[in-house]
């Protein structure tokens, strides 16, 4: 089994239009996972705003763990969670792909080695 690394990324200054575009965010997450060779088992997306502040959540369940995003459009923030246990790629590979294709603003990255 590969290393078990969990990235928690807080993104500030994300355009409101991006924070509301659950379809685009899920497409980018799915493409990022496919690009690095992850095995995507399933995906989901949901747009908030009916009884809660506007934003969305997207999720990709991987054989190697998961990638999720949760946005707060009015605050222009996005919480990104990437946890992998692959020996052929790491969460930084997925993050690099996402940063190259989405305006994620200023990033605050916390790295946690799991089960150490």
Q: What oligomeric arrangement do these chains adopt?
A: single chain
Shape: globular
Number of strands: 6
CATH H-level name... which superfamily? S-adenosylmethionine decarboxylase
Q: Per CATH, which architecture?
A: 4-Layer Sandwich
Average pLDDT figure: 95
Q: What characteristics describe this protein?
A:
about 120 residues, alpha+beta, S-adenosylmethionine decarboxylase, globular
Provide a descriptive summary of the structure in words.
- The chain has 116 residues and is α+β, with helices and mostly antiparallel strands.
- It has one domain: S-adenosylmethionine decarboxylase.
- The chain is 26% helix and 42% strand.
- It has a 6-stranded antiparallel β-sheet, with helices on one face.
- A hairpin with a 6-residue loop joins strand 2 and strand 3.
- The longest helix is centred in the first third of the chain and has 15 residues, at 22-36.
Question: What's the topology here?
Answer:
Blueprint lengths: L4 E8 L3 H4 L2 H15 L3 E9 L6 E8 L2 E8 L4 E8 L6 H11 L4 E8 L3
Antiparallel strand pairs: 1-5, 1-6, 2-3, 3-4, 4-5
Helix pairs in contact: 2-3
